[in-house]
Amino acid sequence: MVVKNVCCIGAGYVGGPTCSVIAWKCPDIQVHVVDKSEMRIKQWNSDKLPIYEPGLDDVVRECRGRNLFFSNNIETAIKDADLIFISVNTPTKTYGIGKGRAADLKHIEMCARKIAEVAEGNKIVVEKSTVPVRAAESITHILSANTRPDVSFQILSNPEFLAEGTAIENLLNPDRVLIGGEESKAGEAAVAELTWIYNHWVPSEKIITLSTWSSELSKLASNAFLAQRVSSINAISALCEATGADVTQVASAVGQDSRIGSKFLTASVVLGQLTVSRAVSTSQTKLPSCRFAKRIIECLFNTVTDKTLAVFGFAFKKNTGDTRESPAIYVCSHLLEEGARLNIYDPKVERSQIEYDLTSAAVTSEPERIKKLVQIFDDPYEVVKDAHAIVVLTEWDEFKTYDFKKMHEVMKKPAFIFDGRKILDHEALIKLGFHTETIGKRFTRNSLLRSSGGDR
Ligand code: ADP
Predict the structure, then answer these.
(1) Residue 11: CB within 6 Å of ligand 1?
(2) Domains of the chain
(3) Which segments of the protein form a coiled coil according to its record (predicted)?
(4) Atom of ligand 1 at shortest distance to CA of 129?
(5) pTM reported for the whole predicted model
(6) Residue 92 DSSP code
């Protein structure tokens, strides 16, 4: 078999960009991306795609209607495909055993059952979603228990390593591609098919074939190692705040060690980026966020009640509109609980998403009160009017280009900037009259109070 027709179930952050790149690089393959959500598919077929990723618009524009199709016809797409990617979401369970920790596999199971129900002939089923080890075995079980005599399946594990905000670049130039399969003749043949697809643009030495379980565990192990680094540097950041060391200097000094390296040693208000957060668990994502929120309150003379804070950025990182597990949700919730008024601006996150995130039951029991305290703006210069402070929660490049002199003029004095992402030029801001605070560094206000004989 040579794969001619690929189907991808799940048109989300993983399935959408991955299959768009496959369609782009493999004009000889028809790619059908399907989803149960009509809204999502409508957006994929429009000029405003449901997700923002640099470069994605161009790829989709070139391939859509040629060999890339988005639809809700899940059954037809499964029937027509030689190879089916499962890239549905595996959200952290919000109920039952493993609540707040374990991945919920119900969507994957639904897909497996749907494939078993409608598939005809031989199919390769590729697990792309991040799953616990041996999930492929569960898929195999469901498929084999429901298979008709004329149908056969091979299950592969092909975990995704893209980072949101750089998805297209990561997909085009991956560090490596993992393809895990059954150790049998049929398994090897299936691995060869998927390898052939990637070989359209990825050099062979970057394609690693391994057993299914090794592949699944490699993905989780990579996430855990990344999480460890992020979590370590954030612990160091807290120490810096307490001792007067500067986390930027410490990270740079430690990162010079070739055994350690400098990547992923940037302290920030975010602990778990989405891909690493499950390994670390959501509760720990909240830790640096709470520390940062507390610091803001302390610095603003121990109260933010009825003060207006201009929030720059709501996405969990730059170049994405994704807010899942964004530290902004935690920081803002904390500030809202203290009665702060928040003026929020993000270049890509939809207004409705911010409202949903801050008023959803998981975050607050008082949605009506929260609605009154939050205002969302489309203009960064409007957002700072009469604000006591600017709070930077996402590292968007455009924040660095603002005219802070102009902003300072319209803010309440003393004007504060809390840079949760360490992206602004603090020296320049201080010269403009701002009081700046960042993470991983001792409070300047503390020392200010001490030197002026303050009472702390
Ligand atoms: P990820 O970041 O893993 O890509 P997303 O939430 O962005 O996750 O996307 C997952 C997509 O999968 C969603 O658009 C959702 O509607 C879709 N999905 C979930 N379950 C099914 C299913 N059983 N059949 C089809 N699509 C599904």
Answers:
(1) yes
(2) 5-221 (3.40.50.720), 268-451 (3.40.50.720)
(3) none
(4) 3
(5) 0.85
(6) B
